[in-house]
Amino acid sequence: MALPPSQIAAMVAARDVKGLQKLPEIGKRLAETMIAELTGKLDAFVDPGILVEPKAGSALAARPEAAGPAAEATEVLLALGQTLAEAERVIERALREAGETRLTSEQIVARVFGQEP
């Protein structure tokens, strides 16, 4: 392996697409797929000392109180074929339009597809 498993697990947990792309044979699309498929499944391998926060400017970093439902909604959109950037953009818009209302991941996805929950 190019990096220790704990470091790779930390990149997945932090949704660090660019970090994963530095690994051999990993492009943007595969990195996004890895994040979507493995988020939450590698937590036992993450060394808490190397875990990084979501990148500034992302939907998850901008609204940390909504990170749980927003992260789940992101995984759904990635599974449906959207890129991470597209998913973050539409989720951020849905959260902004909701204002102070707390939304579940299902409600966020419904808003993304134009269906008011």
Explain what the structure shows.
The longest helix is centred in the last third of the chain and has 15 residues, at 84-98. The relative contact order is 0.13. The protein has helices spanning 5-13, 17-21, 28-38, 59-62, 67-79, 84-98, 105-112. The chain is elongated and about 45 Å long. With 117 residues, it is mainly α. It has two domains: 1-52, no CATH class; 55-117, no CATH class.
Strand percentage lies at under 5%
Tell me how many strands there are: 0
Radius of gyration over C-alpha positions, nearest whole angstrom: 14 Å
Please indicate the count of domains: 2
What is the number of helices? 7
Task: List the SSEs and their pairings.
Elements (H helix, E strand, L loop, with lengths): L4 H9 L3 H5 L6 H11 L20 H4 L4 H13 L4 H15 L6 H8 L5
Helix pairs in contact: 3-5, 5-6, 5-7, 6-7
Short description:
With 117 residues, the protein is an all-alpha fold. The chain has helices at 5-13, 17-21, 28-38, 59-62, 67-79, 84-98, 105-112. It has two domains: 1-52, no CATH class; 55-117, no CATH class.
List descriptors.
7 helices, 56% helix, 117 residues, mainly alpha, 2 domains
